[in-house]
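User: I'm new to structure prediction. If I give you an amino acid sequence, what do you actually give back? Let's try with this one:
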Amino acid sequence: MITIALDADVPLVGPPASQVFDPVPHVDFVQALLAELPGLLATLDSDTRNVVLTLARVWNGVVTGGVESKAAAADWALPRLTVGHRQVLERARDIYLGAEEEHWEDLRGRLQPFAQAVIAQVGMASDR
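Assistant: Good question. You get back a string of structure tokens that encode the predicted 3D arrangement of the chain. For your 128 residues, that looks like this:
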């Protein structure tokens, strides 16, 4: 949350966040993102769209150190995925943007492999 506040640096009241908070060390930011993974995986079947998009945000955050919107993180992640995993993320992004109705029956078998592939990428990026 501090990283998000510092990125925007626009206060609702009081001084800008950059005058109140020190930057979050990258290692702490990455640890916070990694701590989200078990909870995300636990809700993949019940909150599919949000979990798929949040996994893309976690991956983007670990690699870039920034915080992107769900749609922007999806756009960043799509060309980095194999063709087989792109369809899952494209569906989640399109539902999020209102371009498609929520439905996952046809991709249900691809959800766990997608999640594991993204988590593997997150793990490789966080080891650097």
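You can read the tokens as a compact description of the fold. Here is one thing that stands out. Residues 108-126 form the longest helix (19 residues).
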